[in-house]
Amino acid sequence: MSIDNLRSGLPEYAKDLKLNLGSLSRSTELNEQQLWGALLASAAATRNDTVFSEISEEASEHLSEEAFNAALGAASIMAMNNVAYRAKSWLGDDYAQVKFGLRMNIIAKPGVEKADFELWSLAVSTINGCEHCSVAHDKTVRSEGLTKEQVWEAVKVAAVVQAIAQVVQVEAAR
């Protein structure tokens, strides 16, 4: 199970995704933990069993147990937060001061460097379409010293993993 399996299983019409995944998996913008955490968190966010299985097995070879769990933690907490923050935005000013009321302890103590966890949260938030969370996590990672190129690399990882999950789903239905 691996990134190579995902790439080789993609049909010809998804050749660009094959190429993009190949180049992103050799990223020089992100360190190994940042890259594999972004891949894993993004795979979890796609909700696609095949994509998650292929990426998670290989990610376990590149991430410590703490980082692996933190990437999954980023995906899970953002699944909740992205829904809640989008809803607060849609519901308007009447909800601006409403107490959020949801536990988010993992954000304070994720088990990895704050910048890495926030980067993975940003990747998941882009998949989930939460502008508020994407902007907030960008601000945090930039204040932690990451560059706009590193942020964009994580966004590209999220975009390609999401697109691959769509293709895998389409092909399974054909």
From TrEMBL:
Name the EC number(s).
1.11.1.28
Q: Which InterPro entries match?
A: AhpD, AhpD-like, AhpD_core, CMD-like
Q: Where is the Carboxymuconolactone decarboxylase-like domain?
A: 100-170
Q: What are the entry keywords?
A: Antioxidant, Disulfide bond, Oxidoreductase, Peroxidase, Redox-active center
Disulfide bonding pattern of the chain? 130-133
Where along the chain is the active site annotated?
130, 133
What GO MF annotations does this protein's record show? Answer: disulfide oxidoreductase activity; hydroperoxide reductase activity; peroxiredoxin activity
| Gene3D superfamilies for the chain | AhpD-like
Q: Which reaction does it catalyse?
A: N(6)-[(R)-dihydrolipoyl]-L-lysyl-[lipoyl-carrier protein] + a hydroperoxide = N(6)-[(R)-lipoyl]-L-lysyl-[lipoyl-carrier protein] + an alcohol + H2O
- Which BP terms in the Gene Ontology apply to this protein? cell redox homeostasis; response to oxidative stress
Q: What does this protein do?
A: Antioxidant protein with alkyl hydroperoxidase activity. Required for the reduction of the AhpC active site cysteine residues and for the regeneration of the AhpC enzyme activity.
Its assembly, as annotated, is: Homotrimer.
UniProt lists the family membership as follows: Belongs to the AhpD family.
**Name of the protein in its database record:** Alkyl hydroperoxide reductase AhpD
Origin species: Corynebacterium uropygiale
Q: Taxonomy-wise, where does this protein's organism fall, top ranks first?
A: Bacteria, Bacillati, Actinomycetota, Actinomycetes, Mycobacteriales
